[in-house]
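Section 3.1: Structural characterization of target chains.
Under the original work plan, the team committed to producing a structural model for every single-chain target entering the pipeline before any wet-lab resources were allocated. The record below documents one such target. The sequence was received from the expression subgroup and is listed exactly as submitted; it comprises 148 residues.
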Amino acid sequence: MNTRKRATLYAAAAGLAGGLALVGPAQAVTTAHRTAGTTLLQHTAVHPDGFEPDSVVTRGNCKAWMNTKKINGHWNAQGLVRSWNAQCAMMLQRKHGGAWERITWYHFVRYNTQDHTGYYWDDRGYKARVCLRNIDWNDSTWHCSRGI
C-alpha cells in the first residue's frame, strides 16, 4: 500500500474514532533524494485539501477543527465546531508575521449541533488556527490549535 493511501486510511480511522464530521483525506508524499550514489527517503507533508488533523482542539464535549481548500489557486481555511451535550464557542484566527487576530465572528453551538465559518485566506506567509471555549466549563480563556 503506498504512502498516500496509508495516510488517507489513518486519517479516516482517526476521524471516525474521534467522531468528526466533514472529514476529508490527509495526503503525504515521499520523495527520494540521491546523494553520492545513496538514496535517502524524505517524508514531505503536503497541505491537505480537507480535514487538518493537527488542528483539532477538544474541551470536554466540545470539539473544533479546520478544513483547508484551494480556491482560485490559493489555500483557504475554514473553522468547524461540534457539540455533544455542551455549549461551545469557536472562532478562527490568522496571523501574517505578527500577532494572532480574530477573523470570524464567534460561532456558538449547543447540545448536539455543529457550525462552521466560511473560508478565509491561508496561503503563503499566513497561518490560521481554530480556537475553542467550553461555556459549560466556564472556560475563561480560548484554547487554540497550532497554526497551519
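Residues 3-18 form the longest helix (16 residues).
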